[in-house]
Design goal:
The chain is mainly beta and about 120 residues long. The protein contains two helices and eight strands; from the N terminus they run βββαββββαβ. Strands 2-6-3-5-4-7-1-8 form an eight-stranded mixed β-sheet. Strand 4 and strand 5 form a beta hairpin.
Length: about 120
């Protein structure tokens, strides 16, 4: 049996931009996506802690070290600059593999920078 489990999570980052007139997606600082083992174009789920919105989109690589978390296109209507969001990616695994898999959890600082 194959099940879907949490692969990685970027916990409590602040939205830095919202660009409605864009094709779609979320732009995330390259440092954050690398730390979370997320690749460009990967589907992610986003949870907005400020308003409870939950939505899915795909990732675009943002400038390394910028702290960028930019909602593009229609997703820009689901958060405001300064809102705190959680970004999660999932993977399909065999049940036995999933039992031992440990998700990658990234906890950035207040400026969306990796804590080193």
């Amino acid at each position: 049996m194959i099940i879907e489990i949490l692969k990685s999570k970027i916990h409590r980052v602040k939205v830095t931009q919202a660009e409605l007139n864009y094709v779609g997606s979320i732009t995330i600082d390259e440092d954050l996506i690398e730390a979370a083992n997320i690749i460009p174009n990967e589907k992610v789920q986003i949870v907005n802690n400020n308003n409870g919105a939950r939505f899915e989109t795909y990732v675009i690589r943002g400038e390394r070290g910028s702290g960028t978390v930019c909602l593009n296109g229609a997703t820009a209507r689901l958060a405001q600059v300064g809102d705190v969001v959680i970004i999660m990616s999932y993977a399909y695994m065999e049940r036995e593999e999933a039992r031992v898999y440990e998700p990658i959890l990234v906890f950035p600082d207040a400026d969306n920078k990796l804590i080193r």
